[in-house]
Amino acid sequence: MKITLAIFVLAIPVQAVEPPITALAFSPDGKNVLAGSQAGVRVLSWPELKPVRTVATKLSHVHDLAFAPDGKTLAIAGGSPAERGALELIHWPDEQLLHRLDLHKDLIHSVAWSSDSKLLATASADRMVAVVNAQTGKTEMQLEGHSRAVLSVVFLPKDKQIASAGVDGTLRIWNIETGKVERELSQHTKSVTGLAVRPKTEPTMLASISDDRTIRFWQPTLGRMVRFARLASVPRALAWTPDGSKILVVCKDATLHTIDPE
């Protein structure tokens, strides 16, 4: 007996899965949102979120996007894991490349601008913080002290200090004139993943979020924690309202919290 086997192949269209978005920034005019990922940087209309165009970048991983306060320069930060931490500075809105800089030996997780748009600070998985001259592209200094990857960095008001935080669970306040640590804050019990300076307030208030499921509020110039709130889930990102009256925190369980810092 001869048996014939028939094999049927069912062709099912497969939709390409987009890589997760790892960075967001509003354009200076508020008309677009820029989204960064392993697919590059896309410009979307706001609030429709319709694709407008892409911004040219050579970074294989984009981890942060930040516009200078004067709105003239876009910083794209990222790199290649365990190989390089790179920063691209793009003139806005014509999107001309100003500088492409290899600053670190591992990914850049965060980038921050000084209020006068002259300096940038980068936080890297290589445990370093770099301070860069935005006009020349020159590295002004490298700040060494964290024992593990640095995940977030911000300038404090008056641009004389930088705050950084990371996987070692500490916040460090650096004097960028001397390159020395002025204070180390260590009340968190797990990785500190985000920092944000409260706008329009004196004395300076700094908020931090951590994998220990807390948001903590600090007076960094005095080196003390003011208060904290415990959350039901791990916080992933934070942002102050423009007037500084509230802070928004989004968590791993897809909840968004509005918190009164007082």
Describe the secondary structure blueprint for this structure.
Elements: E1 23-26, E2 32-37, E3 40-45, E4 51-55, E5 61-67, E6 73-80, E7 84-91, E8 96-104, E9 108-113, E10 119-124, E11 128-133, E12 139-144, E13 150-155, E14 161-166, E15 171-175, E16 180-185, E17 192-197, E18 206-210, E19 214-219, E20 224-230, E21 235-240, E22 247-251, E23 256-259
Antiparallel strand pairs: 1-2, 2-3, 3-4, 5-6, 6-7, 7-8, 9-10, 10-11, 11-12, 13-14, 14-15, 15-16, 17-18, 18-19, 19-20, 21-22, 22-23
Distance from first to last alpha carbon? 86 Å
Number of DSSP strand runs: 23
Number of helices, counting only DSSP H or I runs of 4 residues or more: 0
How much of the sequence lies in strands comes to over 45%
**What does the largest sheet look like?**
4 strands, antiparallel
Question: Strands of the biggest beta sheet: in what spatial order?
Answer: 1-2-3-4
**What is the CA-atom radius of gyration, in angstroms?**
21 Å
Helix and strand composition category? mainly beta
pLDDT averaged residue by residue: 93
Low-confidence regions: 1-10
Helix content: under 10%
Shape designation: globular
- List the secondary-structure elements in sequence, H or E: EEEEEEEEEEEEEEEEEEEEEEE
Overview of the molecule:
The chain has 262 residues and is an all-beta fold. The protein has strands spanning 23-26, 32-37, 40-45, 51-55, 61-67, 73-80, 84-91, 96-104, 108-113, 119-124, 128-133, 139-144, 150-155, 161-166, 171-175, 180-185, 192-197, 206-210, 214-219, 224-230, 235-240, 247-251, 256-259. Mean pLDDT is 93; it is low at 1-10.
